[in-house]
Fold:
Amino acid sequence: MPRISIVPFSPSDRYHLLLCELDDTMFIVDCGWPAENDSDDAQTDRGKQQRGSIGSLDDPRDALGTINWERVDFILISNYEQIRLLPYITEYTAFSGPVYATEPTKAYGRCVLEEGLSAAAKKRYSASTSASTSRNGSNSSNSVSAGNNGRGGQSQLYSKRDIVAAMEKITDVRHNETVSPVPFVQAYTRSSGYCIGAGNWSVEYKGHKTAFISTSTFATCLHPQEWDGKILSEAQAIVFCDAVDPATSPGNDAADDVPTASWQNVQVSQRLNQLCSTAISTLKQRGRVLLVGEPYGVTQDVVQLAAENILALNLPQPQFIFVSPIAERTLQFGNIMGEWLCEGKQALLYLPEYPFADKELRKKGHLHFVSSLADLATKNIPQGNWFVVIPPHDIESIDHFVRQWHQDAQRCSSADMASGTGLAKFTVLIHDDDAARAQRLVNRLSIGPEVTFVPVARRFTFHSIEQCLAAAERAQHVLVPSHVFARLESQTKSSEFRLFEFSYMQATTVDLDTDRHLPLEVQGEMARRMREKGKQHGLVEGKLTLAAGKIRLECLDEASRNSEDGQDQVAGAGAGFRVTAATTASTTTSALATAPALKKRDLDRWTPERLAEELGEVGLKATVVSTPSQNKAVRVVVAGGSATICMDNGNGNGWSVDCSSASAQWTVIDSLRRVLKASL
Amino acid sequence: MKVVPLGAGQDVGRSCVLVTLGGKTIMFDCGMHMGYNDERRFPDFNFITTEGDFTSRIDAVVITHFHLDHCGALPHFTEQRGYHGPIYMTPPTKAICPILLEDYRKITVERKGETGFFTSQHIKDCMKKVVPLHLHETVWVDDELELRAYYAGHVLGAAMVYARCGNESVVYTGDYNMTPDRHLGAAWIDKVRPDVLITETTYGTTIRDSKRSRERDFLEKVHSCVMRGGKVLIPCFALGRAQELCILIETYWERMGLTVPVYFSAGLTEKANRYYKLFINWTNQKVKESFVDRNPFDFKYIKPWNRDYADLPGPMVLFATPGMLHIGTSLEVFRKWAPDERNMLIMPGYCVAGTVGAKVLSGMKVVDIDQYTQVHVNIDVQNLSFSAHADAKGIMELIRQASPRNVVLVHGEKSRMSYLKSKIMGEFGCPCYDPANGELLEIEAGKDMRALMSDRLFQTAWAQEQQRRQELAPITELPVKGVLLLGDSKRLTRLLDPSEFDLDEAPVVASARINPDTQDTNNFAAAESLDSVAADNGLAGSDDEQSADIRFSTRRVFDSAQLSERLGLADSANVSSAALAAICDLLTVDPRIPLQTNGAKVVRLGQSVEISVPDATSECELPSLAISWCWEEEGLATQALSAMNRVLG
Structure:
């Protein structure tokens, strides 16, 4: 019975790294790990609880060190948020297998990693400079500098060059493209709706599909390709890698009541609109907007919506400024990856229109990219109402803008305020769905009324999982994180499947009850010949070719086989493969006598030792034994039985072969024949 | 499996190949012929059915790329002939196809005044039915028919299509290019081993020199012509070759600091280039990498064409559509520029026979453009094959990659095909066909059977292979030895490890006739011992040389309680004897098996096969039957064994 075992390696509920084992095949699903700046001052609750027992979580090397990387066959990446440890794994461990991800995951993933790297570098720099001066009383700088002095922070796990090298190793796939990392395992992704190119992997093993539901969303109002529910209906086992921990999730108390998918969509679109209308109303008053968000994902939707509204309302076009070294690339990628976008945006491709507004903004000179604050100083950007986008980790830049704009607002005369000519007003928008992170940010900034925090929570909650399970027609086993398990357990008692929980660093093993047979293609020729001979079964010899994810049995070529084992084969196997023994059909006795006549002197040449040796050469376990009657005999042990070949059956003219079971006899007879033939 | 080319059979133009596999029919491409202006322009759909119900006859239409000779008849087929089934195209094809169709429609209807041609609305309606087909993605048309697209590199969005239904599979290449060019990558396909590979053969006999030298040649010719004050006319499709040549000219102009104006005809330019910008993912890696800094399709030197420019003096370069000089701007400009010997005409693509382009290329000095106009051709005519088709080497390479069992050649001239045909048959030893239009080709697909393989067998073979290998190269082939068990309507064929094989699983052979008349139940007086039987047989064939024998014996243990229940025996009955009798009954079914029963203890078949009830005193106390046979009668013995297994369960 095949079994799957799953060990989650990441302490966070948002980022995952699962080590899975399907019988002898080992693979990793996702390489997520909380970014350093997330983890250092506020580990998630679960992480904290387990910290004591497992050891330091600051260094993922501790966790990854327990994996035997040489045995890991392949890695599947679901989306670009779950990629943080990939460069470390490909560059600094013994892992050498393939890595699969979609093309946008690869392209964006590189940006995300590089951003993370530069953010960490900046942070380290500022931490080391501020270490001697004032500390905000928080322990954040402490832990970072400690990390620096001690074992080195997570950011030092790899360099920029490693990121490039790791990305080169990714094999890009499309949704629904079947890949076969090892011959008996096939995998494909289906869209998860979470971000561009995000997918959920399904691994098929012996006709048994296991779906890994990574970060997903039902929301359809965002730009990525929509959630594809087929993944659930096809799978026999479902692993939910990701679900919002109710304890840490922000403001979805309402979610407890209304669990439908359309509701989630409505909620997300409402929140997007809320963000957008706040921005628009500020811009209307000639104010400035600071959007805190990575230059990808939901930010793209907010900017898009804002740009559309500005155009529709005929407002003066603000200057869009992205403060990030990677923003230019991520926005550009959006425009060339149209096929990975939602239906509405895909339709634009055929017009042809650019799926995002940034192309138009850029053309008109309203879009600016600066890699940092210092870079901003060198750029000549028209003053006026600005729409600035800064990633949340870049607290200094955010801080700078907020302080600057505060000053502007204070300096603004009351007349200006009244007429709305000065830059009196500004708004800070935060859409991060990680409430803890957003809270930290707000704390750091010490700003009040200007902040609008509207978390665009789109990840699966346990309600979503419940709903998924309703669609999972064939599911027999469902694995969920432990924090969801408790809530789900009571509600799914009557269901057809068995529910399992998995928790951090604990292996969960599930037995899959399926046929232990691999799908195979047999060369038609083989079967045809067997049919011609009226046979229903027979011992065949051939070669398996593994290509394009399929296993195929082919006849051996006569020539190649002869050169391989140098043995002449049984007569009548002209086509190059053998069908011997075993006929259940009616054939005449004469036709049955395929074996050539043996002469006494042929047999006399054999000694038990020689026979044992020769049988050993053809792959049998043969030993010389003494029988009770003091005759030498050869004992052959094969799977499923044994056989004794008595070299002298008592009357001096033959051998006798006594097999203990029918299954043993196949192997023995065949090998014996081969050995004898070779000697004739 | 049936293959019928409705167009492009031993011909170039109006590609349309109908393939029936596993009971499903797919139409690959639905193109038009540029050389004709009558009904021969479209494929002859009457081959499918004369009743006009195409939707029930055809399960899917697949368009490989946007060239009109591959998609030109599609609106006609769907809107005017009434096909309503699904149509598959890659997204770039879906995007660009309607533009070219519309462009062509305008020329035919509005300039030539033809009637009965499809309308703009037809094109739009037709495109609504199109389902996008992404590269490598497996698309299920219905429960059985599966499609997969592979990169073909011929033009933006060109694809080769693999289709499978049941045990039959086919690859239709469309047009493809095995060498990467300025903006596109090379075609590539998995080793999918289709039953039939249908390949284009446009350049089937030529082996082309390196692309680089052709590019240099092209640029030098253009340069020399503009230096002498001539005008260069380059007729080409608005999309595809044009973009490649534009990139070439653009970089050359920049490097050489040239100021001679370069124009691009057709209002499509901006729109066409935008498609290239949007679908940059479908170009090659180099283009993709540079796009963030500057999209290579944002041309700096190339400006849109105005009809008035044709009469301007001075040198210029013009890219004009269409590529075969049969109509439109390129033909109009050609008429004006052809008489001047300073000018140059560069034909970068292929010209269908019958078009002005083909006539000019063949060296005709006076060309009839229409009924009333003749043009004297003094212009310097150059033919540089930039056409992105695979050459003979490329075609062979693709066949090697895909490893098909049969090859069908289409989209090429007959004379060239026969050469290629012999070459393919010689090199790959697989049958190769070149059917004419409307010729039904029935190919007996060397069907692969779907089967299941025992995991144990695979794991053993895999482990052995891994041990055997020294280097770490991935294993793609491994020898295996197992018992193949043919399936029937209920069960799939299985390949088992010999140890797992149980003869009982073998289905009863249908050919075994029941013939009670020939039951011979010769009774022997006494049971002979095994040894004496062996001795008899050993002596039986004694000639000059003493023949020896190997005697096999096997014990078959069975569950007596279960068996007696199955056979419906009374409690007191001897189960072993009853089992033997049952086996005997089974074997007597076949009259050709010489059978002797010796009492209740031994059954003899043929010369040496003997089934007996062993003495209870022997080492095994469990109820069992013993069977022994000699080397020579193994076949008979296995038959007996299977009967035994059937009885004993």
Q: What stands out?
A: Chain B is about 30% helix and 20% strand. The first helix of chain B runs from residue 54 to 57. Chain B touches chain A through 111 residues (CB under 8 Å).
